[in-house]
Structure formats: C-alpha cells, structure tokens
Specification:
The protein is globular. It starts with a helix and ends in a 5-residue tail after the last strand. It has 14 helices and 40 strands. The strands form ten sheets. It has a six-stranded mixed sheet with strand order 34-33-32-35-36-37, sandwiched between helices. Strands 1-26-25-24 form a four-stranded antiparallel sheet. By secondary structure, the protein is of the alpha+beta class.
Length: 693
C-alpha cells in the first residue's frame, strides 16, 4: 500500500524561477580556472581565492574575508570573488556589507546571466526578510499550493478527513473519518504510515490532539470514546464509553489540551464539554443550559490556552469563553462567522479557525478576525485546520475527501532559499555536501527527503547521490554556555553554578548531547576549562567579574564554537538579564543576531536573579527561535534545554562521486543544488577545489 500511495503526488512537475541552462552554461564556461588569465595578478588572485574558499568551508569566515579581500586587490571587480566575499560577510552576520558585495557582483555578472539571477534572488530574499513580520501580524494571504488527495485513480488512500495534527518532522497525521484510520503524510504528500487502532479498530475517528507528554488523544464519534495513542500512533487504552453519565460520551468530536495537560472533549450528543486529567480521570462537565449560559446548539471546535477555554457553536455562529473550571465568561465577539468548526492555538496565542470554506485567524484578546485563505475545490467543507512545521496551513476538506495545502502567497512566489553551506573534498572523488533550505522568513524547511533534491556538476546530475541523515532527525543538541561576569552576577556565583549544573543534567537525560564550550564574558571573554570541574568553572574567580564585561564579544566567541557542530545547537546565556553598558561596542545587536540566525544557532537565556530581562536579550531569543526563563521557576530549566533538540532544522547532508577532471587538483569544480517542494523550488550554485595531487 505504501508504494501505491507514493504514486498520487507527483510534485516534480515544476517551473524553476531561474533559467537552469543559462546558469549551467555560465558556470561551465568558467572551466577549470575560476579566474581567467595567466598573468601574475590572475595567478595571485586565484591562489588567494582558493585559500578563501577553503577557509569558508572550514567555517573560518574571518580568514575567508581576508583572503577574498586580498584576491580583489589583485583583480578588482571580479564577480566571482565579490560573490564569495558577500557569502562570507553574510555568514559572519554583516548583512549590509554582504548586500553591498552582492550588488557589485551583480553589476559585474550581468542581471540576465545565470549567476546574476542567483545573486539577485539571494539579495532580494535577504533584504526583504529583514523587514518582514511574523505571519500572524501581516496581511499576507494563503493560497492553495497543493493537495493530499484521498483518491488516486481507482486507489482509495483515505476517506473523509476531519482533522490534521502536524509533527515536528514536517509530516502530519490526518484523521480519516470515512476509512476509520489515521494516516501519516509527509511533506511530499506520500503516506508513510497508517494506524487503525486495536483489534476492534477505530469507530469513526474525528479529532486528534497531542498531550504534553507526547501521547495523543483520538476521539471516536460513533464509538463514544477517546483512544489514547503513543507518540507513534499505536493504541494504548480508552477513556470513557458510550452513555450520558459523567465521563461518558454520545458522539465525541473536537479535542483540546491545555498548558497543564488537561484534556477537553466536545461531547456533541450530550451538548457539553467534559474535562479529564492527563491520566484520563474524569474531572467535570460544563456547557449545559443554565440561567447564566444559553446552552450549545451545535458545539464544534474547542481551543484551550491563556487560562481560557474557547468553544465554537456552528449553528449559533459564536465562540463561547469559559474558565478551566467550566464557568461561563461570555462571548468572544468574533464577527462574520459562518459555520465555525475546529480551532487550534498557534504559538503566538492566536486561534486558527476552520469556517465553512475558509481558514480564519482570530485574536483571542481583541476578537479581531482575519481571513487567511480559501479552499479552491468545488466541494468544500473544512472541518479541521492546523499549521505545519514549514508554515503551511493543512486544511481537512471533508466534502472533497482531501487535505488542502495552503501556503503564504509571498512564499509561493519567492520560492525556497537554498544555500550550499559546506563542501568537503577530503575524500575526493567522494564529495560531502551540507546545505540548508529555508523560506523567505528564515524559517527552516523540514521533512524533505532524497526525492526533493537534485545535485549536478556543470549541468549533469552527479553519480551516486546519497541522502544522509537530515538535521531535523537529529535527536541531540550541542550547547555553548555564555556566563555573564559582571558586578551584578558577582554575588550570584552559586546561582551560576546551579544553572550550569541543571543544564548539564538535562543534557545527560537527552543523550547524544554535549557542552561544547563554557565562555566567560568578562572584560576579555575567554573559554573556561570545564572538563572535570564544570561548576567550579561556572563560578570562576571573583577577580574575573567586572562592570566592563563584554556581552558582544562573549556571544561571538560562544557562537563561533558551535559552527562546526550538529544541526541542533544553541548558545545558552546565563546571567542577570542585563547586557551591560559595553554590550555592543564591537558588534551591534543586529550583527550578533544575524551571526546566530544565519548559522542556525539558537540563543536561549537563563536568568539567575529576579531582575527584568532586557529588550536586547528578548530580541535575540525571539529572532533566533529561543526563549528566556528564570532559573528558579517551579518547573526548572530542563524544558528549555530539551527544547533545543526539538527545534526544526533545515540542514541536509549528501555525498556523491564526482566525475569532473581535476587538473591535478587545480581545477575549480562547479556544483549546483536544486530543491523542489510541491509548487515551490530553489537553487544554489557554488564550486570547490579538489585536493592538490
């Protein structure tokens, strides 16, 4: 069945945004010698360029910049040198300088040349995303970019989807009401798994949610019960049974889990909502008609968050608000609802709502409603919608028997941002390649597999292209700890040691994780020796604490230590939450943020005192995907550390066998990478030098 399912989604019929042949022709024309000429200046420029490229692939970006600058001194205006100089500045966090170099390279390449088109596309992506706001705060619409059909020719893949539940790897579980199963569909629309429950099977499954411990809850409408599943979809147990008494159901439909793990079930037949603890024990029911509440006419979607329970009624066309104890608080006056069904909280606290043929965004605080997009099929009844790991909306179209994939219009138009990050020819002719795939907002694209990539040399597909473990599957994390050595933390030395101890303990529980370095951000930041005395290194000598401590240089050093590590990595700052008076003397806040973000490094913060977290710390966390939390909060800081391993990663690794002539190791060997995902595509082109013979 899995092979048959793979047939229905042929996503490789795409139109590239760049003229592939012109790119390949221009790259091949460079031939074995990337910088033309045989005079002494050309030879000197070529040698410096070689050193720069090799330094770049070792993540030694400062060294690469110096070599490229020297190469330009021999050959001013050389397009390929300017292009690579821009790449090195970009990776170093100096985006303004990178854009200047790329503009000069574009002028030299020519806007209509293949390399010029690539440079121009890169410039537009980098320049535009610096001014974009997150999805929930802009007016960009979503358009249908693809579908996961339930029928392929005469093969039934699944029937009547009612809900979707995204996974961290980019795939999603689809609840198939009509075929009594849940199916896991990857980003390419291929069914990777299906679960039909215990021996008796599921009985009209309707909604699926994830608990805080990773287990999942599945409502069974006709079965009158809730199935408890493990994180892989395997059946574990039941909650409730058919009936009208407390803890029983007559047609359970939509589900929600709050911040503390309590489960809320819309019991459609009994016209109420039932609450259960994380272990499935009944707590209470609410929503029946009483003097303070008119009662449900047709309860549908439910969402739990911010200490409130939001329940939709498709007949009343209202969203009612309750507290966690079931007390009625009033109506969320969301105007213009037609037939609200499922509701899901997004990470920013807003609600994604499926409403007849459209997907809405509802602000739970202001009740402002914005239409995100419409499903385009002739038969439309959207009963479930959620946002996947790649920022797409997946909408379950019950009437059409398919899942609609809806993508931001700007993302669809601009394509994917692909960067070949590293090429290693140490094992030549076997070549190792690492590349990253992002959208225009710097969000990583996860869930891709070998079908989404094509590597080529000079226009010809490489041989023996091997897809290695992608970054999103990496289960561990690499950490660099940045310790604030200020006058404020001098009296917090025990707290600093406790924070480092807790970080190390959490890493030990994760497995496949390690502390790469422990950096003291003093007057002159330095790495501490910590192999056998981690807490002692965290305390450090009192003399190392100084009001002139340097946050910027310390962060730069800590981040640099992570450049060569795994796909999941983070700098964890431990300190008072203040960055100090000399925080950005050498590197600005935007440069530090770009240095981390452009190299896939997340900034997290553990606050040891009770002071306010500075705006600069909050900005770094927000822009890189991290968070700030206090050391002595009741839950501890283990969740922060473990969250690093759950972060999405757009890093992908390959190996292939090169077939190009090397000219005894002196040749410049071109390499292109093309990435396809449904209606989107992206590409990058680089080159490398094989080992000298």
């Amino acid at each position: 069945m899995k092979n048959n399912c793979a047939l229905f989604f042929l996503f490789f019929i795409l139109v590239l945004s760049v003229d592939s042949q012109s790119v390949n022709d221009d790259i091949s024309a460079q031939g074995a010698q990337v910088i033309g000429g045989t005079d002494i200046t050309a030879l000197n420029a070529s040698e410096e360029f070689r050193v720069g490229v090799q330094a770049y692939y070792r993540f030694a970006y400062n060294e690469a910049i110096l070599s490229f600058e020297r190469a330009l001194s021999f050959r001013p205006g050389e397009a390929v040198i300017l292009d690579w100089l821009g790449k090195a500045y970009y990776r170093s966090g100096f985006e303004d300088t990178a854009l200047r170099q790329w503009r000069a390279a574009l002028a030299s390449y020519g806007r209509n040349s293949g390399p010029g088109m690539l440079v121009n596309s890169r410039m537009e992506t980098v320049a535009n995303r610096r001014f974009l706001l997150p999805v929930a705060n802009d007016e960009v619409r979503y358009v249908e970019s693809g579908r996961y059909p339930g029928l392929y020719e005469d093969i039934v893949l699944y029937r009547q989807p009612t809900a979707v539940l995204p996974n961290d790897d980019g795939s999603a579980w689809v609840v198939a009401y009509g075929s009594n199963e849940i199916v896991k569909i990857d980003v390419n629309g291929v069914i990777r798994d299906r679960k039909r429950g215990p021996f008796v099977g599921f009985d009209r499954p309707y909604d699926l949610v994830r608990g805080i411990d990773g287990k999942m809850f599945l409502s069974e409408y006709r079965g009158g019960r809730i199935s408890v599943l493990d994180s892989q979809g395997n059946w574990l147990s039941y909650i409730g049974s058919r009936g009208i008494r407390n803890g029983m159901f007559m047609g359970p439909q939509n589900l929600a889990v709050d911040e503390e793990g309590y489960l809320y079930v819309v019991d459609y037949g009994n016209m109420r909502i039932s609450k259960f603890d994380p272990d499935g024990a009944f707590i209470l029911s609410f929503g029946s008609r009483n003097p303070g509440f008119p009662g449900f006419l047709s309860p549908t979607g439910i969402a739990a968050g911010n200490g409130r329970i939001y329940a939709a009624d498709s007949v009343a066309k209202q969203i009612y608000v309750f507290d966690p104890n079931g007390n009625y608080l009033g109506i969320l006056d969301a105007a213009g609802l037609r037939g609200p069904e499922s509701m899901r909280f997004l990470p920013d606290g807003r609600i994604l709502l499926a409403d007849t043929n459209r997907v809405l965004l509802v602000d739970a605080n202001t009740a402002i409603v914005r239409e995100l997009g419409l499903a385009g099929n002739e038969r439309v009844r959207l009963v479930g919608a959620d946002m996947d790991r790649n920022g797409n909306i997946l909408a379950a179209n019950f009437a059409a028997g398919e899942v609609s994939v809806m993508t931001r219009f700007d993302d669809l138009a601009s394509g994917l941002f692909v960067q070949i990050r590293r090429v290693s020819a140490d094992r030549f002719p076997v070549v190792d390649v690492e590349l990253t795939v992002e959208d225009r907002l710097r969000r990583p694209i996860v869930g891709l597999d070998h079908n989404n990539f094509l590597l080529s040399e000079g226009g010809r597909a490489v041989s023996e292209q091997n897809f290695l473990e992608p970054g999103y599957r990496y289960a561990g994390a690499d950490i660099s700890i940045l310790i604030e050595r200020s006058a404020l933390t001098l009296n917090m030395r025990d707290d600093l040691a406790a924070a480092v101890r807790d970080i190390n303990r959490a890493l030990g529980e994760m497995g496949n994780s390690r502390i790469i370095s422990l950096v003291s951000a003093g007057v002159q930041p330095q790495r501490e020796r910590h192999e056998n005395a981690l807490e002692t290194a965290a305390r450090a000598a009192a003399a190392s604490y100084d009001p002139r401590w340097r946050f910027d240089m310390g962060l730069r050093l800590a981040a640099t230590d992570l450049l060569h590590t795994s796909a999941k990595r983070s700098v964890i700052y431990v300190g008072s939450g203040s960055t100090g008076e000399l925080a950005f003397e050498q590197y600005s806040l935007s440069e530090l943020t770009a240095y981390c973000a452009n190299n896939g490094i997340v900034f997290n913060a553990v606050i040891t005192g009770a002071g306010q977290v500075s705006q600069e710390i909050q900005y770094l966390c927000g822009e890189t995907g991290g968070m700030a939390m206090y050391l002595y909060r009741p839950q501890g800081i283990g969740d922060l550390v473990k969250s690093i391993a759950r972060l999405p990663s757009g890093s992908y690794n390959f190996s292939f066998r090169s077939s190009l002539p090397t000219d005894f190791g002196r040749a410049w060997l071109p390499l292109e990478a093309e990435v396809y995902l449904i209606e989107r595509s992206g590409r990058d082109s680089v080159g490398y030098f094989p080992p000298l013979e």
